[in-house]
Amino acid sequence: MHMQLSKEEEDALDGKYGDALAVAYRILFAIGNAMDADRLVPVRWAHISGVNYNTIGDAGLAFLERISKDALANNVKAKVMSTLNPMGYDPVKGYDDDRFVEKQERIRKAYEAMGIIGSYTCIPYEVFPIPARGEHVSFAESNAAIYANSMLGLVTNKESALSALASALTGKTPYSGLRVEEARTARTMIDVKHDIKDEVDAALLGYFAGKVNEQCISFRFSSVHDKGSSSSIGVDGRARINAKALCSALGTSGSAGMFIITETATAYSTDDGTKHRIEYTTRDAIMVKDELSDEDDGDAIVFGSPQLGLNELGMLASMLKGKRFKKRCLLFCARCVYEEAKRIGYMDAIERAGAEVYSDCCSCLTPLISRDEVDSVITNSVKAAYYLKNWNRVGVCLKSMRAIVGDECYDV
Predict the structure, then answer these.
(1) What is the reported pTM?
(2) Domain total of the chain
């Protein structure tokens, strides 16, 4: 099947409006044909990854600068609201590797020259107004894509940095994958028989579920729990922390782009093989934790993958009143969230407790955490645990935020 394009889309694809727009349409056209899309549909918002120099390297930088230069020459700007994922460092605090900083700044300038907002956050859903339910967006950050689909009722695939950039410049995306209603039905249900007490429990469940490798996963919170246990995954209060943790871990371990919560297992007990039911038990949770958490302690504490939102900062500030961290603590949040938390007063308790707060970056693929300085870290994030182990090559101790504060602080 070949996608049907309008005359304007064909002209753009053929280079009539410059190379930047032609490349963007070629990306979307290739993806659409590969995924049997019949057309392009408009999006309201694009969120772009591939911002950290450690992620895209010199080849990605060269591509971005070429596209940005052509876009500037042909007066091409982002057609819809477009935002950026975190960089590799905090430009206000600086970093002592001049080469890294120079390359990172060139990436930043290339994106911003195309009219893309320098948000540098992996939680855009906590920073910007949310479109109406059912609207199409193009989110490349996996936790944001899964959160948008699962918690906010938006519609997106787990986009790549290239496809999200193409959507930013065109305002469009192929009608395929999770954009098609039939794909947003789960074929596999995970019957959760392990109690979800905190964000680490939620993330371990997400990491387990991601390995099923389905586009859409269904969760049923078993009747062994309290009647309201399914509300432990939500958009408000403590439930939001759990939802973010689940979404980020689900996106880390596999291809899933969304989940739904179901109340009944009946539909997943068919004999024709089209639907499947998998139990998730305490034994499974322990096995996943053992895979990711290989240390009993750590030299430093890391919070913020995904970046902490205002709600989490408020909870942490409350826990830290009258306390101080025993060891170095690195905390990552969006700059606008930091400024609001500072205004409210949350940051007083957090910074008095000794936390180093970094903005515009996060703990994933950051050069700020090095094996030269630490052998292992303590974190409440499964996503951070995965990247810190596999990219930074440091050991990891997984604990909830509350447990970290309880174990790693002293009273002042």
Answers:
(1) 0.95
(2) 3
